[in-house]
């Protein structure tokens, strides 16, 4: 057995100083005040001065993904290693059923890419690019395989579904308790605006945000809200980036729509001035949706603090600046969309919101709520006897600078170069095995596939602590 000693345990009932006992892949005991004797433990880890969290969960990643033009820079091996170094013990990646393929075939392919290679645990959403009778008939097989969340797109011609098919997807997954994650951008408007902006002579990275204005997101979110209301199904707005989009969500919540909201660090830290960096450096930030106006950033920061945002993910989709993104020199439409972030999310958020949010809030946003929403709770997302031994021992006293020079993501830049971070994982355990120490990998690959059940409501900020 392992003992994590003398830390501040972030438990469902609130923070408490004490010890955590791990036995194999499970938490054996949570001991307020500490164990009576350390005799009998195989290993003892000093957590003094640290917060002990249930391992963080990043429920939006794209590892080892073929886009039709290129592979992402991070494989499951490199991406989950980087995730663990930053304190994330589980990712949920987007497997994709491309047109002409089936969901079982897509799931088998993503298992082929991930199985046996991962430092952190991994589950899969299933993105649906073609909806027909065969796809519909395969939905029960997805639930049986532990895939209880799905994704559709309002943008990208090779991925998006028409509204009537979107409604049918919602109605089909609802009886099993499934949730639909949706990329909310109006694809027709984006396609048209890209042509207009390019034809007007704007060819550099700054053309990207110009062709994807906030209204494109807000309209698509509003449309999704009405489809969700019509179907009665649960939906998850992924990578919310705009104040207008948040308004549409809040209006839908007032009507009783069952909606969860995800945002990402890039929309809380960056704004659209990043695209003006010289020498094509603005291409680093070409992702969809793009970083927005300072006003949007401020509104989303407030929403994170007041609880309007339920989960924080990264949309980690890494492409190298040199050899991949630079294929779009002279035409912003050819820049691969996506950016890295799986390693740095916990440090970014805990630094940026150190004065507004406490350890329970960080736990709720990055561990408990993702586990609840996506069917991993109470096995994950809490420190309690019987839960999985995925643990992040977070040292808030460590000051360090985020840089491509010290990251483990297999990409040649970070959007957060020079960010002065406060806090780093001292120890990260995945299934009870030490996977990272002081931000460096141990070389272990204890990550396992996580089959998921139907999810539940996220915990809101006004719910109070859970009574054990």
UniProtKB/TrEMBL annotation:
Superkingdom per UniProt: Bacteria
Naturally occurring in which organism (per UniProt): Granulimonas faecalis
Annotated positions of the N6-carboxylysine modification: 151
Protein family: Belongs to the metallo-dependent hydrolases superfamily. Hydantoinase/dihydropyrimidinase family.
Protein name, entry field: Dihydropyrimidinase
Alphabetical list of PANTHER family matching this protein: COLLAPSIN RESPONSE MEDIATOR PROTEIN, HYDRANTOINASE/DIHYDROPYRIMIDINASE FAMILY MEMBER
Gene Ontology cellular-component terms listed: cytosol
CDD domains: D-HYD
A Gene Ontology molecular function term of the record: hydrolase activity, acting on carbon-nitrogen (but not peptide) bonds, in cyclic amides
Pfam families linked to this entry: Amidohydro_1
Modifications made to the protein after synthesis: Carbamylation allows a single lysine to coordinate two divalent metal cations.
Stretch list, region Disordered: 438-468
């Amino acid at each position: 057995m392992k003992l994590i000693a003398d830390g501040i345990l972030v438990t469902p009932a609130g923070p408490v100083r004490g010890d955590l006992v791990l036995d194999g892949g499970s938490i054996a005991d949570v001991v307020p005040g500490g164990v009576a004797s350390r005799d009998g433990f195989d290993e003892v880890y000093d957590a003094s001065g640290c917060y002990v969290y249930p391992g963080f969960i990043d429920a939006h990643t794209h590892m080892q993904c073929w886009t039709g033009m290129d592979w992402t820079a991070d494989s499951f091996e490199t991406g989950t290693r980087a995730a663990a170094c930053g304190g994330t013990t589980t990712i949920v990646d987007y497997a994709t059923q491309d047109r002409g393929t089936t969901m079982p075939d897509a799931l088998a392919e993503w298992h082929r890419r991930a199985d046996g290679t991962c430092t952190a645990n991994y589950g899969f959403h299933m993105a649906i690019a073609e909806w027909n009778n065969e796809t519909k008939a395969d939905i029960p097989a997805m639930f049986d395989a532990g895939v209880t969340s799905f994704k559709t797109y309002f943008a990208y011609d090779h991925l998006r579904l028409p509204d009537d098919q979107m409604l049918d997807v919602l109605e089909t997954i609802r009886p099993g308790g499934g949730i639909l994650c949706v990329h909310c951008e109006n694809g027709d408007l984006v396609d048209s605006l890209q042509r207009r902006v390019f034809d007007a002579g704007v060819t550099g990275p700054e053309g990207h945000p110009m062709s994807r204005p906030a209204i494109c997101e807000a309209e698509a979110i509003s449309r999704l809200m009405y489809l969700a209301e019509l179907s009665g199904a649960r939906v998850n707005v992924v990578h919310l980036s705009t104040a207008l989009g948040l308004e549409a969500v809040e209006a839908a919540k007032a009507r009783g729509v069952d909606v969860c909201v995800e945002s990402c660090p890039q929309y809380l830290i960056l704004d659209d001035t990043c695209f003006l960096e010289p020498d094509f450096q603005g291409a680093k930030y070409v992702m969809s949706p793009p970083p927005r106006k300072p006003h949007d950033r401020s509104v989303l920061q407030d929403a994170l603090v007041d609880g309007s945002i339920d989960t924080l993910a990264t949309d980690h989709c890494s492409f190298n600046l040199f050899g991949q993104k630079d294929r779009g020199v002279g035409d912003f439409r050819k820049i691969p969309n996506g950016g890295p972030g799986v390693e740095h999310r916990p440090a970014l958020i805990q630094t940026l919101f150190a004065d507004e949010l406490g350890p329970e809030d960080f736990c709720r946003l990055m561990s408990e709520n993702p586990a609840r929403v996506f069917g991993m709770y109470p096995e994950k997302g809490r420190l309690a006897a019987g839960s999985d031994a995925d643990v992040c021992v977070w040292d808030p006293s460590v000051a360090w600078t985020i840089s491509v020079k010290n990251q483990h993501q297999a990409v040649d830049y970070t959007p957060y170069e020079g960010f002065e971070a406060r806090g780093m994982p001292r120890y990260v355990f995945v299934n009870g095995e030490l996977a990272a120490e002081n931000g460096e990998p141990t070389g272990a690959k204890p990550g396992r596939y996580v089959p998921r059940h139907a999810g539940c409501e996220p915990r809101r900020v006004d719910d109070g602590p859970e009574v054990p």
